[in-house]
Amino acid sequence: MSLQIQMLGTGSAFAKTFYNTSALIRSNEMNILIDCGATTPRSLHEIGVQPDQIDGIIISHIHADHVGGLEEIAFRLLYQYKNKKTKLFLTESLAGVLWENTLKGGMYNPADGFSRLEDYFEVILIEENVPTSIQPGLTIEFISTLHIPHKLNYSLFINGRTFYSADTQFNEELLVQEIVNKRNCHTILHDCQLSGNGFIHATLEELLTLPDYVQERVYLMHYDDDMMNFVGKTGSMTFIHQHEVIEIPE
Ligand SMILES: Nc1ccn([C@@H]2O[C@@H]3COP(=O)(O)O[C@H]3[C@H]2O)c(=O)n1
Ligand SMILES: [Zn+2]
Ligand SMILES: [Zn+2]
């Protein structure tokens, strides 16, 4: 089974020319979404993927550019596709916050029997740091990474060989020792703040300090609108583009 990642968006939270960073893990048998930001439903529409063709959604953390499209997907499955639900893969702690602090405002509707996350999604709780088979041929490991202090955030290992940072601060030890030297990940999709201080995201300046053999595996995502000014200035790392498809190891 060949496995691909297709980027649905590659922009930062405030980018206007790029959609919110999210991705589709694709094969002939599945479409699994990583995050679902406010612009993700539009991106799915543009590549011809309908809500009922999504087999599940993985959630990295709660910011609108990562979960802002969930209400639309769930409501369309419920109302347009007649009571359908997709799977939601997330940790237990994230599930509580996602419903209570984000989705409930728009989706709480006890009169019609919709008052819990489970009323809209088939919620599959995933344990941190445990590689978990979520579909035939797809194992995901959620690892807790630092984005904003005291805020839950997870990066993902996909089949043990591909690393998807979601939103994280720079962590050299994780990238070099764990991801490349120990796990031999060949593909790293990493968020990248192009300029300024990287309080909550890895900056390009920080990522450029990685050894070349690590940089060669890195695709940069979650960047600002001025990305074109940085083409040719990313060392051995490459920008990944909206709707681009890359093959990843099974
Ligand atoms: N402490 C914070 C918190 C948030 N932010 C900005 O808000 C965005 C939310 O989505 P993000 O993709 O995590 O990027 C965050 C920052 O741009 C920020 O700059 N500093
Ligand atoms: Zn983000
Ligand atoms: Zn974030």
What does this protein structure show overall?
The protein has seven helices and 14 strands. With 250 residues, it is α/β, with parallel strands linked by helices. A seven-stranded mixed sheet has the order 6-5-4-3-2-1-14. Strands 7-8-9-10-11-12-13 form a seven-stranded mixed sheet, with no helix packed on it. β7 and β8 form a beta hairpin. It is globular. The N and C termini lie close together (7 Å). The mean pLDDT is 97. It binds the ligand Nc1ccn([C@@H]2O[C@@H]3COP(=O)(O)O[C@H]3[C@H]2O)c(=O)n1 and zinc ion (2 copies). One zinc ion binds next to loops. The site of one zinc ion (ZN) has 4 residues, from loops.
Supply the key terms.
hydrolase, 7 helices, single chain, binds zinc ion, RibonucZ/Hydroxyglut_hydro, MBL fold metallo-hydrolase, 250 residues, alpha/beta
